[in-house]
Fold this protein.
Amino acid sequence: MICPDCGREIPEGHLYCDTCGREVQIVPDFEPEVENSITESLSSVVETLTETTQKEAESGHEKQKNLFVLSLGCIFILALIILVGYFTVTAYIHSADHQHKTAMAELEEGDYGAALQSLQNAMVAGGDFEELKLEMAACYQALGDEQSYMETLYELIRYSQISREKLMQCYDQLVTFYADKEQYEQINTLLQDCPEASVQEKYAKFMANVPEFNYVEGAYNEVVPLKILSSTNGHIYYTMDGSNPDRYSEEYISPIFLETGSYEITAVFINDYGIKSPYAKARYQIDVSMPFAPEIDAYSGDFYTPQLLHVEAEEGCQVYYTTDGSEPDGLSNMYSGFLPMPLGDSNFKFVAIDEKGVSSEITVRNYHLELITNYTKEDAQSVVRRYLLDEGRIIDPDGTISLEDPRKMIHVFACCVNIEGEGDFYIFSEYIENPDGRREKTGSYYAVGVYNLPLYGTHFDARTSNFALSTELLRQGNPDMVRESAE
């Protein structure tokens, strides 16, 4: 060991330095590894103590910090709840549903101005466009604002996504509005532009549609039975010279038969409200061959005995005639082979119409038939009545059948004819007349001689196209009986 003062070596076991007398302190020697280990251990202890102390200090601080954060969190959550509630309430107040409910309450109270504002607010908030607009229209109507009322309804019918039900409601209100003001022209215009067929069908009576022709214009080599059609109620007027018709022109009633020639047909429809449609025009060129006019065996003149008129026409043609002066056509009386000349003055017009509907020229005949006899058709009718009284088939001259049966037996003059081999006769057709005035034909005929009044039963003979006596003489001619009947 070396003395720390004089540097001399101190022998082992000595307690003092032999040179300078320095006391020797006995300290054990440590190896560096051990010393380092001790140092590290002490350092670890110190660090542990230090960390424990810091953790304890930090733990108290953390508790205070956590408490502060928790308090801030509660305040934030409370504020958030308040804000959410505020914005939720505010959003509901301004929502379409709330504004709509408010408007309904205001409508019930009759406050249409406030209701209108609420409905507009609901519209801005995205409410149902159709429903809100209809309710707004109701408000305008209640407020007497006709312009806004109509503008709102027209806005709705132009809305491409409107439901069929709401569309019908709008048209119902518009038509009612115009009808109340008798503005029928506006109704027609409104309906003409309507895309919904069911609406047009519902209000067809207000419409004035353009009339239609059943034949397209052009050239034809046959008679054209032209029809002018309209899908609504009203009247059709037409012209055939290209001029525009009006309510004073020819009214269309039945088909117009266009024969050889050129035609420019113009038609107009006028409904029951006086609304006129646009004009319909068509041009036709008809080129057909015309059949010969009918030929009648009796020329015009005076006659003194019963005559049957025999009419002949071209093969394939049917003959029609009139006796009232009108022009015959396919709807007139058809000649069937039996045509007796009437008593007195008569005027016949005959036409032949072929299978294509082409008409011939018209044949006219004027006759005067006056029988050379002392007895009129009224005298002959009295003969029939007296016979039925004598037979008990009637109980009075009026023709009453019986006390139990108030119906009457009536005999109507039909014609006067010549029955070959028998003579000239007045023909009477028998009817049963009901109390209400209706008559039913029995199918029985009576023939009374023109010159001395004998009575026969008779029937129509299709083979000869004339009458024939069907029974034996029912009553001898007796001119005195006529006077008795008259008395």
